[in-house]
Amino acid sequence: MRIVAFDYRDIPNFPQSTVHGHAGRLVFGTLKGRPCVCMQGRFHLYEGYPIQKITMPMRIFKLLGVETVILTNAAGGLNQDYKVGDIMIIKDHLNMPGFAGNNPLAGPNNERFGVRFPCMSDAYDRELQQLALDVGSELGYSDFLREGVYCVLGGPSFETIAECRMLHKLGADAVGMSTVHEVIVARHCGMRVFALSLITNEAVMDYDSEEKANHEEVLQTGKQRAEQLERLVSTVVTRIEHNNNFA
Ligand SMILES: O=P(O)(O)O[C@@H]1C[C@H](O)[C@@H](CO)O1
Ligand SMILES: Nc1nc2[nH]cnc2c(=O)[nH]1
Fold it and tell me: Which CDD domains does the entry mention (predicted)?
């Protein structure tokens, strides 16, 4: 596969990755004949970027002709049935920064991209969720493939025990620091969205627990599941129905 990659620092006005483990490259290539563009590293609220800057790549993708966005993240498992290494297909989200008014669509609406009040009850494409379940089952991943609700917080501090208990009671299965803002902007401009969380650590829910969330464990679990995640995502990509607008 031929690829062309650009460092974020060489793209005018593009934010820079500041997080260890995020390479900071935009990579263009084809996967079984399908044109793809991949971000090696994303941006987070806790890096100090305005929420509109974090999500700017979604609008660039829209302008490039992208139809489907696939997002992945590392997340802490709140659901007591989840284990480290599980892959959760995101079926819905809780947007905690949004509750406080920090929404990437706040401010004047750019009608060129979408409507003022976009619907979010269909944010995560159901056909793509089913496709991922089918592909996961074919690949023998069913034992560690889940479906659940992702909750975004601002970070960078991990959650307290009381916060984890509250988020779980509110209906979240996993907690993280990304993805939701990108999903909102991608849906606003009409792209299909599919998203996965890798459960990199168990959220600490018990005052007797000795566990402590830490970024090293997040990176390590990411490496351990990288191959399976890559196979799942690449197989889903090759099976997505498309509109032939790149043919
Ligand atoms: O970019 P994601 O959401 O995958 O990264 C998560 C959230 C923090 O950046 C980091 C914490 O270890 O992992
Ligand atoms: N907020 C949050 N983000 C994470 N990213 C990976 N693990 C976690 C976690 O436990 N909490």
Answer: PNP-EcPNPII_like
Query: Is residue 227 domain-resident?
Result: yes
Total domains in the chain come to 1
Residue nearest to atom 5 of ligand 1 (CA): 74
Q: What are phi and psi of 138, to 5 degrees?
A: -60, -35
The whole-number pLDDT of residue 21 equals: 74
Cα(39) to ligand 1 centroid in Å equals: 14
Contact of 51 with 178, CB cutoff 8 Å: no
- Label residue 149 by pLDDT band (50, 70, 90): very high
Q: Token pair 């197989």 is at which residue? A: 235
Please indicate, yes or no, if residue 211 is contained in any of the structural domains: yes
Q: Among residues 153, 164, 142, 143, which one has the least CA distance to residue 77? A: 164
Instruction: Using pLDDT thresholds of 50, 70 and 90, give the confidence band for residue 246.
Output: very low
Neighbours of 220 (CB within 10 A): 13
Distance (angstroms) between ligand 1 centre and the Cα of 44 equals 8
Q: Decide if 140 is inside a domain.
A: yes
